[in-house]
């Protein structure tokens, strides 16, 4: 299923994009989930993690360039398609945010279908799938998107996986092995008992990490310098 977000402060434009999306999906037969947002702030504070984001470049609270930079930090691998009536803004959007492309208002169906088809093909053909699989304590397979995982915690010889929606318990895993497995997705070991998704770290406070879901994770003093360095690298790579 393709997850898609539409972020535009004009309701008529949100409705138009949703209509075009519905028409495309009916023709293509793709399964999808779409959510609409009226501002960049509303999207950033939501728990929705889309594959594709249609983002208006001119909005009242925070323009698409500012919002796009934050969104890239929060969601690794997201495809951003900018919506604008000002072509001159697109150089900044394409160069600074590395957006997938753009559509100029008023949007026609042909242009919309072309760029959405390209974006979906990019997702389906990408060799960098972020799906990871673990064995639960109920001896069932846990299949998750790496971007949805906030952190792993080792306790009582088991691993707790905390995601944006729920918590899982998995077995037959070692925390060091998980750190190695998840490193390519932007994870790092903050403590001998924790492996953290760097994209979901909100603040560093003393010997604690404050995650974007509000939970607190230990940061070992001997790991702090390397951890902060990796966090800065992730931030730079995301914009």
Q: Please report the total strand number as a whole number.
A: 15
Class from helix and strand fractions: alpha/beta
The tally of structural domains comes to 2
Determine the CATH topology of the largest domain. Answer: Rossmann fold
Mean pLDDT over all positions: 85
Overall helicity: 25-40%
Beta-strand proportion: 25-35%
Count the DSSP helices.
7
Write down the Rg: 19 Å
Q: Poorly predicted ranges (pLDDT <50, ≥5 residues)?
A: none
Largest sheet: 5 strands, parallel
User: End-to-end span in angstroms?
Assistant: 27 Å
Q: Return the CATH architecture of the largest domain.
A: 3-Layer(aba) Sandwich
Q: What would the principal axes of the Cα set say about the shape?
A: globular
Oligomer: single chain
H-E string: EHEHEHEHEHEEEEEHEEEEEH
Strand order of the largest sheet: 2-1-3-4-5
CATH superfamily of the largest domain: Response regulator
CATH class of the largest domain: Alpha Beta
